[in-house]
Each structure stands twice: as C-alpha cells, then as structure tokens.
Amino acid sequence: MLKVGVLGAGHLGKIHLKLLKQSSKYELVGFYDPSKENAKKVVEDFGYTSFSSIDELIDAVEVVDIVTPTLSHFECAKKAIEKGRHIFIEKPIAKTMLEAEAIRTLASQHHVKGQVGHVERFNPAFTAVKDKIDNPMFIETHRLAEFNPRGTDVPVVLDLMIHDIDIILSCVNSKVKDVHASGISVISETPDIANARIEFENGCVANLTSSRISMKNMRKTRFFQKDAYISVNFLSKESEIVRIQDAPDNLDEFAMVLKNDEGVEKQIYFENPEVTNNNAILDELETFADAILNDTTPIVTLANGSEALRIAQWVIDCFKTQAVI
Description:
Blueprint: E1 2-7, H1 11-22, E2 26-32, H2 36-46, H3 54-59, E3 63-66, H4 73-82, E4 86-90, H5 97-109, E5 114-117, H6 124-127, E6 138-144, H7 156-171, E7 176-184, E8 193-200, E9 205-211, E10 218-225, E11 228-233, E12 238-246, E13 256-259, E14 265-271, H8 280-294, H9 302-319
Parallel strand pairs: 1-2, 1-3, 3-4, 4-5, 6-9
Antiparallel strand pairs: 6-10, 7-8, 8-9, 10-11, 11-12, 12-14, 13-14
Helix pairs in contact: 4-5, 5-9, 7-9
C-alpha cells in the first residue's frame, strides 16, 4: 500500500479522502487544508488526521493528492515533487502553461510520476467504446450544467470544456492546427458559455459547447467516422454505436436500409455496448497507484494534462479578439 495524503479538503477533496480511505492500494495518512475551521470540521465529521502544514503532510507520505484550487496547483506540486513524492493533481494541471511545463520538468528531474485528474477518461460509457473510436473526422460535444458558484473563479473552458478537450485529444491521432472560439459572460466575471471549433492537421474537426448556466445538465459527445457514429452520454453512462455496412443479399424484413442515388444499399446496425458501472474517481486514483507500483505510464500523464491546458488556453485567447458581453 502507498502512503497518501490529500491537499485540500473542499467538496472534491472530501470525496478523494473518502475513496482513498476505502482503497486497498493506498494507506490514507491524512490531509492539509488552509482553513482551520474546515479542517477541524472534517476531523470531527470523518476522523481523518489533519496536518498543520503542507510540508508536514508531504514529509509523511509517498503520494500527494492535490485537490486545491487551480491557482495553488503549481506551488503544491513543486513542494511535493522536490521532496520526491509522486503527485496526482486535479484538472486543470495548472493556471498557466509556464507552470504546467515547470511541473513536467520537475517531475522528470526528480524521477517521480504524475497523473492529472481528467476523470472522464474513466467514465464507463467512454471506456466501453473507446477501442471502437477509429479515426473520427467530426466530433461534437455538449457539456451543460446548472449554475453552481463553485468553479466560477475560472472561465467555463477550464471548469467544464477542458474535460471534453482531453477526451478529444485522446481520440484524435493528429496535432491541432487551428482553434476558433467565442465566449459570453452572463453571471460570472469570466465566460459562462463557450463554443469552440478545433481543427486538426488530419482534417478532423471538433465542435465543443459548454455552459454553466443551463436549465438542465448534459454531458454528451458524438463521434462521426467512416461508416460509424458513436454516441457517449457521460451523464447517464450510456453509449451507442450506429454502423453502416453494405446490405446483404437476403435482407431481414425488419432491417433498416438506406439507398443512395447510385442504387447502392447500406444497412444500419445498432449496438449498445455493455457499460459496467464504476466509480471513476476511485478508478483514476487506483490506476495511478498501479502505475507507481508497476513502474508504468499513468493513463493521463502530465503531458496529457499540459496539452489539454494548452488547447484550453488557446480557446480562451480567442475570446480576447471578441467583445465579451
């Protein structure tokens, strides 16, 4: 078992604490939270050990789980890495690309592993079909959420859209060529609604929409590729594959068939892959433990987290060329 400590005991930090306590791969040593009042309440409510400083916690563990506000990710990661601790760091990896690259460099210099908390990679609806996603040429995502003051310290791109950016980058084997985007601020000081068009060198195009002031929640991505359409509902944890193949000579009477102008018939097949329910946060934490213990590459590397941040910042930079309402 790996000795682990959590930095940050807010909403998500408490979830991490609970899951690490349950995990058979970690020994939860304790946590640090800068709010003495919150730390006291967490100790009283759950019985976890509270440390009086970041350094004290880092000294007591092998793995540091950073679940603090984005603004403090770099400083927390730097302290942990320089003491030779492996780091799990919530998304986005850092506030700026300069900080993200510094984290990567430090981790390499000190020979420690790092994983970024892009949790949707572990969503069972996505894992059920990810091996079926093959050279998609058009991707459309909608990530809509009802308003929640938590997270409004950053643009909706870093709060919500970055999840889909990471998923898309993991599925498209090509470099990003160009980005076009617009954002609107309605309630917050930063954009609450954003739309981005990401173009890849291989011709793939991804259209992403994110909102944190929606009347309903939605987390859905659709992949269009040669002879197939794949839908992933990250919220309901359901996925569907629609395939188009040459129609057989002996068609079933209930078969769905399309005929083009040349008279070529194509049959439509529907698949609903089996989705095994899981706890995605626990999975991402435990696969990181596996990467440390087996000396393998984490599923979501620091490089992955940095690239997702780079594209997210590119999207945000596009806002500067428009009049944000």
